[in-house]
Amino acid sequence: MVTIYDIAKRAGCASSTVSKALNNSNQVSKKRKEEILALAKEMGYVPNSNARLLKTKNSWSIGILFSEDLNIGLEHHFFSGILQEFKSYVEALGYEVTFVSKKVGAQSLTYLEWCKYKNIDGVLILTVDEDDVNLKELTESGIPIVTVDNGLINVPTIISDNFQGTRMALEYLMLKGAKHIAHISGPLRSFSAKERLQGYKDTLEKHAIGVDEKLIVEAYNYDYKSGKNALLQLIKQNKGIPEAIYAASDDIALGAIIALRELGFKVPNDVSVIGFDNIELTRYTSPSLTTVSQNKVMIGTEAAKHLIALINKETHIAPGIVKRVPVELIIRESTK
Amino acid sequence: MVTIYDIAKRAGCASSTVSKALNNSNQVSKKRKEEILALAKEMGYVPNSNARLLKTKNSWSIGILFSEDLNIGLEHHFFSGILQEFKSYVEALGYEVTFVSKKVGAQSLTYLEWCKYKNIDGVLILTVDEDDVNLKELTESGIPIVTVDNGLINVPTIISDNFQGTRMALEYLMLKGAKHIAHISGPLRSFSAKERLQGYKDTLEKHAIGVDEKLIVEAYNYDYKSGKNALLQLIKQNKGIPEAIYAASDDIALGAIIALRELGFKVPNDVSVIGFDNIELTRYTSPSLTTVSQNKVMIGTEAAKHLIALINKETHIAPGIVKRVPVELIIRESTK
DNA sequence: AGAGGCAACGAAATCGATTTCGTATTTTTC
DNA sequence: GAAAAATACGAAATCGATTTCGTTGCCTCT
Question: pTM to 2 decimals?
């Protein structure tokens, strides 16, 4: 490993001069600079981040909190899509993105300890167990943090406009003549699931339609199987199928459609179904799915922008929802 | 930030003693150790990774090379699934996982420079542009590296058994009576696509069936649209449809099925289709897809194991394929 | 009792950068 | 041409850990 001392020796100057030259300080003459830069290149010099950061602190690195304790992995297109955009944005600014861990070698650390240990500049919370005892310590530490699609107290949050999306979905179904619209909600430990359920109730109310609790079922998870089970439950509860179903996610909607098909019902002829997410494949299913599209690109980008602003102290920590990202209704074949 | 000096002051001893106590050295008495540990906890001491690594080198961190130059993002279930497993495995051992970048602040670096700068212990190459000029420099640097599903020269590779998978798919179709089996290959710049194409030719040969070039088309990408286009091309080339199609990925297969349906053909009655990957939703499509399942869990885990072994020098760098991960044929409704 | 060995600790060097401050040289100003 | 100011550089401190090596005191053994 070649160091600034090696360069200094060959250049016949002090290491401090080399450091200044490499940092383009105006305390060193143009001639010297060029000479030192050339030498550094020739000798294959690469700075040592540890030595540098020991002095300068700010690490140019951002931690991603992606807890696997929940059943949501990186495979989940929604989160991985957001992460992708977030990563692109911050990397272009010169930040490294790294996963927040709980261990270093044999030693266990809390999230906060790990972040301090690594001198992390900021954290994006993607998924996390809200009851994790170590979470609060982190969110109250003063380290810049943002989160997406989450109901974390005191953390700036970027989230889709679940109310607007729900309203658009329901009003579209109403426009097409549906009177009794069921809702398969997401698991209600999820913040977005709660918002969509609330949006469902609000919209019905707005249209002077009473909420029929029998028309609401909760899916156990955001996946196909839960969608299937929820649909069976829905039918049992109502002794038949409603005219239309608004599901809290595409996976749930697709699961419900499969179940409907197995029971001999036709979508959309017997029942219309709307999902939420607009995952890519919903264009290709049969029938293709009418759904509320979440803007992963914008969510990821806005999260990045906000976090960077916090890091640069261009904004202060405003707990709660700092940005509602608009959604879009994509009309396809699963609604008539 | 509390340092070992702060602790030393309160404990009435030297900083070196504190360091030894924290590292459980046997050069310090049990009584002192306990006293210092207690103080450290009370004072909220967290070590400084930069100071530590400056002396000790090994960083306990592993870089992920995930180039976005290709059209493959983190959303791609295959790669994100592998990453997920890899991450779990190495994090449990105390490694941090971080994305290899090309910038630090305003400064641009090559992959290798970045890894040296960060003192990275090892690298997993997930996706990368094989023609990137900076890639060779990295792979020849001597830093422990593994890659998956790739044809990188001189890099230990973990990959699915594409030959076995292809043979199983084709022999199943033959068993069901298909004589003329077409192949929609993946983009041939992809290593796996090449292997699957070769497997196709080998298997036909083994069964004394001549290879009909008209029955082979290359999809432009691993996605639905390319599958659709490839199918149209296939029909044009053959002035009709073959009895069966073996597609190099599920996305391609689904695209082909959509195209077939739009043209009025029934799957599997008019034509059988087999995919490759076993992405989760293929169980739920209509018809559900017969496919060759790739074992993402095993690929991710094996890649992790191999990289750790390289880091610990328990094995030496063996360029080329170090592990063929078995695949499995999942029979569903898209074949008759 | 004296030699040898061990346990427990501290002083100081070290890792590789950045940064402050002092000094010598050159340039500007009146 | 002398004083003032700007420029270019180096010495040394610093960041916060680890590690080597030397020193002390105490115990053991003959």
Answer: 0.94
